[in-house]
């Protein structure tokens, strides 16, 4: 029997992941041992400190360009950049999740097991403190995302996918109000997510089969082996294509690309709004981080084969997102379709396989994350006696009632529409430029055309807020406490700064834009 | 004094003013108006100093400044003005204070914040100056798009009937054009070696196919902005719904960005494509002249009527640009200035009339001249200027466009001349139906109609009338500035004027 060789572990490089997962475990213990009334503060502080510590380690590791833990994890420029992005955005999301000033007891249900719409349920909605288990769940999810963007083989990627998906399914079900909608969202997300995971796993198996039989190499699902197999393997390319397709389905599902997007509007609408923001910002970063690595490292030599297909998916995604956004009447669903369209733009970036394309995509992910979190922060504030007033007609005349918050939201919408001097414009440029350079003019034209369509729903909200008269049912904007205000202001300022002076972040992204192979 | 950073200061100054005005207390509207007016006068003084220090015989681009902005993409804050831009900057600087003065009471009727209205006007001035002063394609694009935002809110929040619809239509049309241009801007950046500097880009050789696509991207944006037929349908709505002052700026200046863009970007950057597309552009121009004039004749809404007359005039400007002769080009640029003055005046006067009557419908007037003789007189003058009566400034520009076009393309010039006749029809009809004839008895019951022009309004119209007459008799100071720039543009596309060939025509006539 051969001796089992332990892989070497670079603990410093893995520190961000270890910190997040360790804190998540600690959070579970806190639930068990800390008295109920102080749990909220302890958990929130713990989670924020962990994110801060992980971020510090990411900065500390900034010059790492290594593959560690066997071939399982790559800690290189894109990994560190995206981990940093996930952590910063997660910190903002945690601020929203931890807020209890906007709604008494926070945005989460006090007892998830109570029958929805029952008398008990109504009672718990009226101000009993929400579950604090959300913090360990969020921390687990963050940890999973950190692994996901660093994963250097498909099995690690699959495990990371599950680690960050399972907590998200649960989190979706924990809205304080509109419990049925929330539970339906979670169920839908879980079932479809499970299918997507199964597709992914089957894809991994096919790819494994494809890599077998190369002279002088063992079969495997790490990216170096796959990369070699794409050019050298004697196996039938059908295995490769089928594997790639199934794998992509799993990843594109998480990225909310059409035709795997159908869960997005329902889940975004049903989930507690802070969680929606978390998913829209962080899950997107994680999903596209993985897509970038898979297509730029593992399958890079098959780009002739996948580019047309992924291009078609990108166009379809942009079209579906933009066209369906026009018909929406609920602000959260509108933002969901806008997020789908943005997934399409990001795919354009993925299909520009140059350094500029990679850095542009990463820049886009960060810029979009800030804006979308700020947008959902505003959504949490517009409320009446029954919680958030998300129907668009209720937003009529909001600009008259609360010009400050309506102004901030207008700014974010202009950013989504890609008006210059906002990050929405610079990030579109960062993606379309390299795509055109790589000869993907048709994708750029599709992107521009769908941007026009997409401008209409955004503009409709602006019209609603500013040019309509406030009605009887126009809710007021709740003046937020420190946590939500902080998240909102960070988001808006980042949207402005990345639009006016994007050079520092562009430099950072450009410096990070090279995978270790 | 020529080392003074005129262009950046001119761009930033109104923005600072806007911030000051926006943060003035809401319950002191008078103070906001005075500050805004004073600020716009300051900009005017600065512009006059700049005009004086411009050396008409010197370099094509003067007052050049450049500061790095996004080095990763080769974007910089580069400002520079040629004669064409200088004239447009001057027009902005003159119009904005007059518009502020004319809009003194416009914002009060809307129940919305008065200081914000004037702040928006100043923000608009900032973006308008920026768009003409930019010499970096990216910077130009930024101003081109951002310009929509203040205008959108001016129309949407302070406009009249159907303001929401008009504001959204305006925004979407312009954004559509802008996004096509964005694709072309990125394309130009890629083929131009990742720079946005205008001067560097004008040296780049582009393959024929690419050049045509890029030209189309830019041209579409400018044709919507200008607007040329058939992209014009937003203008009557926007012009009809906007408050009169904003409408004067919209038609007088904002739309010139389109024609200016064609002169500054389409022609020099894509010379071959410009020549290839010129027949189509000429056709659009000629159709616009006749079609919009016919529609103007049939309008019953004063502001919509003036908007349609503008579309017809933009047809003339388009013809002048794409005739590719120095005379026609100079005429087109001069037309941009004169049209800004004449139509600006017309819009403001019409606005005064509408404010008095409380209605924009021509059928609600009739014989108004008996009640407000001075106002009716000014309306008549503005109308005559806008139909290009000899002695007023627009005549010179229209005449230059026509003779410049006639030397190279007779049919176009002949059809365009029809536009002059139609112009007489719509202007005179409008004047007759509103101010002449028997007095509409309903008018006497409207209090406002008993007050003729007050001192403030006289101060608004007097400078414009003076300029129109002055430039009508002595356009030399302006043409001296425009000519070298137009000449340089014609050199860029490699067209020389046809030599005067009197002999040929005589021989032909002899046959």
UniProtKB/TrEMBL annotation, chain A:
Q: Which organism is it from?
A: Micromonospora orduensis
Q: Which GO terms describe its cellular component?
A: endomembrane system; plasma membrane
Q: What does this protein do?
A: NDH-1 shuttles electrons from NADH, via FMN and iron-sulfur (Fe-S) centers, to quinones in the respiratory chain. The immediate electron acceptor for the enzyme in this species is believed to be a menaquinone. Couples the redox reaction to proton translocation (for every two electrons transferred, four hydrogen ions are translocated across the cytoplasmic membrane), and thus conserves the redox energy in a proton gradient.
Task: List the HAMAP family hit by this protein, alphabetically.
Answer: NDH1_NuoN_1
Q: Which Pfam families is this protein grouped with?
A: Proton_antipo_M
| GO biological process assignments | ATP synthesis coupled electron transport
- Which branch of life, at top level? Bacteria
The GO terms describing molecular function are: NADH dehydrogenase (quinone) (non-electrogenic) activity; NADH dehydrogenase (ubiquinone) activity; quinone binding
Q: How does it sit in the membrane?
A: Multi-pass membrane protein
Predominant location: membrane
Report the EC code(s) recorded for this entry.
7.1.1.-
Catalyses which reaction(s): a quinone + NADH + 5 H(+)(in) = a quinol + NAD(+) + 4 H(+)(out)
Where is the protein situated, by its record's location annotation? Answer: Cell membrane; Endomembrane system; Membrane
UniProt protein name? NADH-quinone oxidoreductase subunit N
TrEMBL record, chain B:
What are the protein's UniProt keywords? Membrane, Oxidoreductase, Transmembrane, Transmembrane helix
- GO CC annotations on file: endomembrane system; membrane
Family (UniProt): Belongs to the complex I subunit 4 family.
Organism of derivation: Micromonospora orduensis
Which residue ranges does the record assign to the NADH:quinone oxidoreductase/Mrp antiporter transmembrane domain? 134-419
Tell me the NCBIfam families matching this sequence.
Answer: NDH_I_M, PRK05846.1-4
The membrane-topology field of this record reads: Multi-pass membrane protein
Q: Which spans are transmembrane here?
A: 6-24, 36-54, 74-102, 114-132, 138-158, 170-192, 212-232, 244-265, 277-298, 305-326, 332-355, 367-391, 411-431, 459-475
Check the record and name the Pfam families matching this protein: Proton_antipo_M
GO terms for biological process, alphabetical = ATP synthesis coupled electron transport; electron transport coupled proton transport
One molecular function GO term is: NADH dehydrogenase (ubiquinone) activity
Kindly report, in one word, the top-level EC class recorded for this enzyme: oxidoreductase
What EC number(s) does this enzyme carry? Answer: 1.6.5.11
Name this protein carries in UniProt? NADH-quinone oxidoreductase subunit M
């Amino acid at each position: 029997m051969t001796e089992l060789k332990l892989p070497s572990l670079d603990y410093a490089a893995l520190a961000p992941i270890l910190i997040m997962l360790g804190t998540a475990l600690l959070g579970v213990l806190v639930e068990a041992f800390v008295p109920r009334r102080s749990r909220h503060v302890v958990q929130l502080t713990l989670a924020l400190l962990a994110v801060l510590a992980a971020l510090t380690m990411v900065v500390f590791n900034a010059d790492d360009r290594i593959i560690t833990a066997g071939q399982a994890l790559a800690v290189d420029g894109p990994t560190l950049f995206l981990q940093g992005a996930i952590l910063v955005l997660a910190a903002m999301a945690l601020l929203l999740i931890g807020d209890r000033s906007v709604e008494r007891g926070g945005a989460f249900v006090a007892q998830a097991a109570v029958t929805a719409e029952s008398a008990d349920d109504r009672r718990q909605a009226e101000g009993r403190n929400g579950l604090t288990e959300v913090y360990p769940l969020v921390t687990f999810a963050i940890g999973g995302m950190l692994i996901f963007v660093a994963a250097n083989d498909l099995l690690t990627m699959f495990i990371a996918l599950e680690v960050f998906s399972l907590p998200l399914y649960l989190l979706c079900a924990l809205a304080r109000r509109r419990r049925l909608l929330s539970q339906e969202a979670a169920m839908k997300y879980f079932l479809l997510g499970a299918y997507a995971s199964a597709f992914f796993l089957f894809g991994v198996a096919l790819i494994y089969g494809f890599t077998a039989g190369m002279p002088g190499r063992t079969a495997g699902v790490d990216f170096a082996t796959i990369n070699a197999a794409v050019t050298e393997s004697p196996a039938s390319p059908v295995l490769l294509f089928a594997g790639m397709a199934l794998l992509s389905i799993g990843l594109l599902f998480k990225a909310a690309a059409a035709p795997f997007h159908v869960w997005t509007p329902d889940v975004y609408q049903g989930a507690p709004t802070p969680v929606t923001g978390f998913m829209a910002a962080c899950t997107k970063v994680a999903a596209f981080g993985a897509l970038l690595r898979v297509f730029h490292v593992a399958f890079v030599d098959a780009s002739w084969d996948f580019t047309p297909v992924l291009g078609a998916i990108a166009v379809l995604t942009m079209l579906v997102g933009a066209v369906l956004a026009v018909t929406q009447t609920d602000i959260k669903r509108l933002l969901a379709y806008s997020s789908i369209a943005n997934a399409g733009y990001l795919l354009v970036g993925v299909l520009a396989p140059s350094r500029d394309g990679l850095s542009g995509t990463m820049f886009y992910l960060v810029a979009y994350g800030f804006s979308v979190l700020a947008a959902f922060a505003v959504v949490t504030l517009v409320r009446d006696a029954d919680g958030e007033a998300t129907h668009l007609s209720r937003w009529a005349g909001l600009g008259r009632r609360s010009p400050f918050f309506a102004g901030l939201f207008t700014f974010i919408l202009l950013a989504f529409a890609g008006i210059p001097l906002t990050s929405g414009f610079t990030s579109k440029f960062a993606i379309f430029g390299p795509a055109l350079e790589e000869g993907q003019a048709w994708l750029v034209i599709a992107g521009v055309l769908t941007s026009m369509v997409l401008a209409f729903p955004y503009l409709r909200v602006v019209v609603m807020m500013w040019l309509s008269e406030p009605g009887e049912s126009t809710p007021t904007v709740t003046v937020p406490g420190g946590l939500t205000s902080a998240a909102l202001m960070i988001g808006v300022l980042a949207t402005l700064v990345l639009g006016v002076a994007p050079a520092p972040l562009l430099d950072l992204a450009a410096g990070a834009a090279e995978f270790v192979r | 004094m020529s080392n003074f950073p005129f262009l950046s200061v001119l761009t930033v100054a109104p923005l600072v003013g806007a911030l000051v005005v926006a943060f003035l207390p809401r319950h002191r509207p008078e103070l906001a108006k005075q500050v805004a007016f004073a600020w716009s006068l300051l900009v005017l003084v600065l512009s006059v100093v700049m005009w004086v220090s411009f050396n008409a015989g010197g370099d094509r681009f003067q007052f050049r400044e450049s500061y790095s902005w996004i080095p990763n993409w080769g974007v910089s804050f580069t400002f520079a003005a040629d004669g064409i831009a200088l004239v447009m900057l001057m027009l902005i600087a003159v119009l904005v204070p007059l518009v502020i003065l004319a809009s003194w009471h416009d914002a009060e009727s809307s129940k919305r914040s008065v200081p914000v209205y004037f702040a928006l006007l100043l923000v608009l001035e900032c973006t308008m100056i920026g768009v003409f002063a930019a010499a970096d394609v990216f910077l130009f694009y930024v101003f081109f798009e951002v310009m929509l935002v203040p205008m959108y809110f001016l129309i949407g929040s302070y406009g009249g009937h159907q303001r929401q619809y008009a504001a959204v239509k305006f925004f979407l049309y312009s954004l559509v054009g802008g996004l096509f241009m964005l694709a072309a801007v990125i394309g130009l950046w890629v083929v131009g070696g990742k720079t946005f500097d205008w001067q560097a880009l004008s040296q780049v050789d582009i393959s024929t196919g690419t050049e045509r696509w890029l030209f189309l991207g830019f041209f579409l944006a400018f044709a919507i902005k200008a607007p040329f037929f058939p992209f014009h349908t937003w203008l009557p709505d926007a012009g009809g719904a906007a408050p009169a002052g904003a409408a004067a700026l919209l038609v007088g200046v904002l739309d010139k960005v389109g024609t200016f863009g064609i002169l500054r970007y389409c022609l020099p950057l894509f010379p071959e494509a410009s020549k290839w597309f010129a027949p189509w552009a000429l056709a659009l121009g000629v159709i616009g002249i006749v079609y919009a004039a016919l529609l103007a004749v049939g309008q019953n809404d004063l502001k919509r009527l003036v908007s349609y007359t503008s579309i017809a005039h933009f047809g003339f400007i388009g013809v002048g640009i794409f005739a590719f002769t120095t005379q026609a080009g100079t005429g087109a640029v001069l037309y941009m200035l004169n049209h800004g003055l004449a139509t600006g005046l017309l819009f403001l006067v019409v606005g005064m009339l509408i404010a008095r009557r409380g209605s924009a419908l021509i059928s609600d007037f009739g014989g108004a001249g008996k009640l407000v003789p001075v106002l009716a007189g000014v309306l008549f003058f503005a109308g005559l200027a806008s139909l290009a009566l000899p002695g007023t400034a627009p005549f010179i520009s229209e005449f230059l466009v026509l003779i410049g076009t006639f030397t190279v393309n007779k049919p176009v010039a002949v059809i365009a001349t029809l536009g002059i006749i139609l112009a007489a029809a719509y202007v005179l009809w409008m004047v007759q139906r509103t101010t002449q004839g028997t007095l509409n008895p309903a008018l006497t019951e409207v209090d406002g109609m008993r007050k003729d022009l007050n001192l403030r309004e006289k101060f608004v119209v007097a400078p414009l009338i003076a300029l129109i007459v002055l430039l009508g008799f002595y356009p030399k100071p302006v043409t001296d500035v425009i000519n070298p720039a137009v000449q340089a543009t014609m050199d860029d596309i490699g067209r020389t004027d046809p030599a005067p060939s009197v002999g040929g025509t005589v021989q032909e006539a002899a046959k």
